[in-house]
Amino acid sequence: MLAIAAAVVFGIYLLLDLFDVKHSDLFNFETFTSLGLLLLALYLAGVGSGPRNGSGSGSGRRFYGRRPGRG
Fold first, then answer.
1. DSSP string for residues in 43-58
2. How confident is the model at residue 34 (pLDDT cuts 50, 70, 90)?
3. Angle between the 2-18 and 29-45 helix axes, to the nearest 10 degrees?
4. What pLDDT shows up at residue 31?
5. Is the dihedral of CA 30, 36, 39, 42 positive or negative?
């Protein structure tokens, strides 16, 4: 999810740059770069990676097709 947010931040900045929108002090290259890289770093660190095993839904092994050991 954080990687998607980083892609959205970079995409917004790209659109602002392509359409030559006048930037204020809040929307500048350093701000967008820092925010995007922060989101990517958090994603790579495992923050917000989704539900953990044993949280109710999604726990246990999943078998697709024939189950092993069933004749």
1. HHHTTT--PPTTSSTT
2. confident
3. 160
4. 81
5. negative
**pLDDT beyond 80 at 70:** no
CA atoms within 13 A on the CB side of 47: 10
Q: What is the pLDDT of residue 28?
A: 80
**What letters, b where the CB count within 10 A reaches 16 and e where it falls short, cover 28-55?**
eeeebeebbeebbebbeeeeeeeeeeee
| Residue position matching structure tokens 């990517």 | 40
Mark residue 60 as left, alpha or beta (left: phi above 0; alpha: psi -120 to 50; beta: remaining): left
Report the predicted TM-score, pTM, of the whole model to 2 decimal places.
Answer: 0.56
CA pair distance 19, 57, nearest whole angstrom: 44
